[in-house]
Description:
Layout: H1 15-29, H2 37-52, H3 66-79
Amino acid sequence: MRTSLGRTGVCWDNAAAESFFASLKNECYHREPFATRARARFAVAEYIEVFYNRKRLHSSLGYRTPAQVLHDHHNAATAA
């Protein structure tokens, strides 16, 4: 019997999201007190845009940043 993604008990469908949220928790706000909800939202947005997308190397992307992958994709699309 084949199992499809999205069914209960299939762990692979949320692996990327689970990995991201684990990184967010451990690298951004673990043991970090925030004075307001707005400050917490700003910290999460800053983490994603400044660190996660531009500086953090991702093994699933060949140890490149998402920004590098996007840049390479745009260059390849322009050249084609």
